[in-house]
Design brief:
about 45 residues, mainly alpha, 1 helix, about 20% helix, about 0% strand, elongated, CAZy families GT5 protein
Length: about 45
C-alpha cells in the first residue's frame, strides 16, 4: 500500500484531508442545522 501511495503522490494524483476535519466547523454539539445536537457523552 505504501508503494502505491508514494507512486500516486509522485504523479500528483494523491490528495487527502490534513489532520482530519475541523471540529470547530463540523461540531455536532453546536451545529444548529441538526435536529438534535450530541456529544461523545450524550448520543
Amino acid at each position: 500500500m505504501e508503494g502505491l501511495l508514494r507512486q500516486r503522490q509522485h504523479e500528483g494524483r494523491l490528495s487527502g484531508i490534513l489532520n482530519g476535519v475541523d471540529d470547530q466547523i463540523w461540531n455536532p454539539q453546536s451545529d444548529l442545522l441538526l435536529a438534535a445536537r450530541y456529544d461523545r457523552d450524550r448520543l
